[in-house]
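writing this on my phone so excuse typos. first protein, seq and then structure
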Amino acid sequence: MNKAKAILEMRHVVKHYRQGAMDVPALRGLDLIVSPGEFTALSGPSGSGKTTALNLIGALDSPTSGKVILEGKDLTTLGRSALSRMRRDRIGFVFQAYNLIPVLTAYENAEIVLALQGVAPEKRRERVYQLLSDVGLEGMEHRRPDQLSGGQQQRVAIARAIAADPAVVLADEPTANVDSETAEKILDIMAALNQTQGVTFIFSTHDPRVMARARRNVHLADGRIVRDETT
């Protein structure tokens, strides 16, 4: 990867968790560079460190040592308010459990980041309706999550993740809770957004379907990168 054009750098990242009296290593000196427009999977068995890495990239956790640099900013040096702004403005999240707000409609869930940013209502409306159409939910804008299938909820989550045009979208096991056909459709949507709009995606996954669709597979084991393959 070209460091001059890197959107993300992880430099010698170590992460330990405390479990009782034990210090448990999750990442053991991870070095990773991601360029804009990548469609990358972090893969590996349970306990390999892939979700930990995603949480550190997303500023949901902080490393024990090392640096996590997003768009030239070292996340490990930022205060709480600055990190909150980074998560709001520059990082999109797609969770395996969807994490939609139950009392809000699909439109309102997809709109929420733009509303927090203070984007004008008319611009929000134009952006959100287009996004929901892009992910195949035209006509379902006013349904709440409990009126949507799992796959439809994940589509709302994707629309929400990219609404603010973030630097990177982090998808944690995005196909884990849907059937095979729906998983393929979700991957189709993400691949199309990557190819047509240049959205950078980083997945954590053990799903062979995701790994097959990714253009770069970074395989982790015991908190280290063991293979980094680009197709």
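second protein below, same order as before
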Amino acid sequence: MENSTFKTAVCQIRTELDQGQTMEKAEQMVREAAENGAQIVCLPEMFNCPYSERYFRTIAAHGHEDCVNTMSAWARKNRIVLIGGSIPETEDDKIYNTCFVFNEKGEQIARHRKIHLFDVDIPGMRFRESDTFTSGEDITVFDTRYGRFGVAICFDVRFPELFRAMAKRGAQMIFLPAQFNMKTGPAHWEMSLRMRAVDNEVFFAGASAARFDGFSYECWGHSMIIDPFGTVLAVSDEKEQILYAEIDLSRTDVVRAQLPTFNCLREDIYAVAK
């Protein structure tokens, strides 16, 4: 690890119905973030695909390789670590909701397939990701010149054991590309992100898509970056924008020394796999 301090950015993008338009916009936002000093940039969940069962298979049918190659080029050209939100990834006859991560050379250094699929049936909303996607099976942490990070996707955040496992594997900051909706967002978005940060005394970045008013799935937005004490360092509203925060990973050790919950786990009684 060369430097534990860095500037991170979340690109809160509104995904358009035209994929080409969305990709052009994403490229501009990634470039702007880098020009403003961001060294690690995160995109939202399904940033290249409207969040609707109607579009998942259509976009997946075109394959994910071109988008992966494009994100690799963005990372290389801008000399950034890019957490590539998520896109529909195809393998054999299966489709995954997948985040690809790239280093400053454009090399793929991680791939996270969403583990917990969003299957809900609540008043006013029914959605079944499992009708389209296959769930992932891997806990994802990765190393960069700044430190070790973790990544998960949206509904994964509701399962605290996953984040404890990432922290036990050394992740000091966790990125969560997501699209909470207009019911779960106001109720649980900020609460969930801050508690996963506090649970494990890690930095946490929730990278939401921007709201597409009138679309069948309206996203809550409100991307957020949180420190290991649960303090909100930066938060957006629902509109398209880039969110920035200065991160000093040494604060992880400071908080754990001051309030040693993570250092006082009773693994003789309970444990999460490393």
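The chain has one domain: 5-261. thats all i got for now
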